[in-house]
Design brief:
single chain; 244 residues; alpha/beta; 8 strands
Length: 244
């Protein structure tokens, strides 16, 4: 696994092709468009659960196809500029998610729990669910964040732990199977915050294995359950989770 995290998969794919194109020359706009389409179609064959990649591919194709020019270099530059804007937009979206999520949870001292890794290592920067944790910490409202191991790949124990320790955010690792007992014993836990690989038109959400049981235990214990995701994770062409 070289690249993971729904937003990061899209951004890395877009920028990797931009890096290739930067050293290429195209005599015509048609040849530039043909090469870009071919490479984007190849990237799509990776078929991640995350819809962000396909959203990015659609937007990038539209950008080069609607650029009116006979100059291949102009088409190339249009693609590169669009990819760079996607990078900037993802960071801004994540910071907005963090701000709004923190406001939703409240200003008093709280504890939250998060699953998998949804921070800088999974996005263009700042993070989605972990972005909310960062915002809570920045405004002085975070007492502690619990984060799960996230088996079987342990993204929480390895990646989220690294991010939280690096930024000196008060945190504690918890076994995946101990979350329900933790919610029962710690009334300060205000919310469980997760990211999303894909959100269907009806709101159903596909995410890391283990998310479903967290949603169930959050409801049982009367705890907020928040899915933090950018609009690029929303798939209006998929009716429900059963179709993912």
């Amino acid at each position: 696994m070289q690249t993971r995290g729904a937003p990061a998969i899209a951004i890395v794919a877009a920028l990797s092709l931009a890096a290739e194109l930067s050293s290429m020359h195209f005599d015509t706009s048609a040849s530039a468009r043909a090469h870009i389409h071919m490479q984007l179609d190849y990237l799509a064959t990776s078929r991640p659960t995350a819809v962000n990649l396909f959203d990015a591919i659609t937007k990038l194709k539209h950008a080069v196809d609607t650029t009116i020019t006979d100059n291949g270099q102009v088409v190339r530059d249009t693609y590169v500029q669009m990819a760079e804007r996607m990078l900037d937009a993802d960071v801004k979206d994540n910071m907005a998610i963090g701000e709004h999520g923190a406001q939703l949870i409240g200003n008093d001292k709280v504890r939250v729990l998060t699953h998998c890794n949804t921070g800088t290592l999974a996005t263009a920067g700042y993070g989605t669910a972990l972005g909310i944790v960062r915002s809570l910490h920045a405004q002085g409202s975070l007492d502690r964040v619990y984060f799960t191991e996230t088996r079987p790949y342990n993204q929480g124990a390895r990646l989220t732990a690294y991010e939280l320790l690096t930024e000196e955010i008060p945190a504690q690792l918890v076994c995946d199977s101990a979350v329900s007992a933790l919610l029962r014993s710690d009334p300060m836990i205000r919310a469980i915050i997760v990211g999303a690989d894909r959100v269907a038109a009806n709101g159903d959400t596909a995410n890391k294995i283990g998310t479903y049981q967290l949603a169930i235990t959050a409801r049982y214990h009367g705890c907020q359950f928040i899915v933090a995701a950018p609009t690029t994770s929303v798939d209006l062409h998929t009716k429900s989770g059963a179709d993912i």
